[in-house]
Amino acid sequence: MKVGLFIPCYIDQFYPQVGIATLSLLEKLGCEVVYPQGQTCCGQPMANSGFEHLTTGCNELFVDHFQDYDYIVGPSGSCVLHIKEHLHVHGQEEAATHVRQHIYELAEFLTDVLHVTSLPAKFPHKVGVHQSCHGQRGLGLAQMSELVAAPFSKPQQLLQMVEGLELVNLKRTDECCGFGGTFCVFEEAVSVKMGKDRITDHVNNGAEYITGNDVSCLMHLEGILRRQQSPVKVLHIAEILNNSL
The Cysteine-rich domain covers which part of the protein (predicted)? Predict the structure, then answer.
């Protein structure tokens, strides 16, 4: 199994430890992982702002770098969902289709492709899980609370395999953190209030750490936590699953 590692630009620039943890975790689980050196932004910021017609170069570059892998894995639900739903390249549609059908968010890949049932990881802390909107409602990583259906969460399924980790129960399990990409720029007051509400739910239920599958959401929450001088920390799920492996 040859895996192309897709590291979104904001992770590369601000949270490289998440990319390193993702690589380490996949390799320890038996994957042959390659990081295409020429990869750049997937084009999501432009598309979300109404300029998808300007993502042609991003799309072509993405296909050129990832079309030859069995799977493409990235530690960001929003970026992965963007590729799944919007990647098209004129003259290379067969290759683009292969990429769209074989790209996975990390937790999704571990549960649905590798079928991981145990992890020798240790993390003796109380952890709250932030279910990011793109991952939950776009990729189906967890059940939406408004549906009358059996609850499930692929991130929580993996975290339950970690020795010493205690998942905290939140009052509102799938509420948006308020980041929303450019939403936090154009509607910063609403965005911050939503983030504060999300943090309050975690704090009130005893979380020492907040984790999730999107560093963008965690970055938003981390900024608020720092301004509040809160002892609560944030970690991407890859960092926890790879801890003490």
Answer: 3-84, 127-221
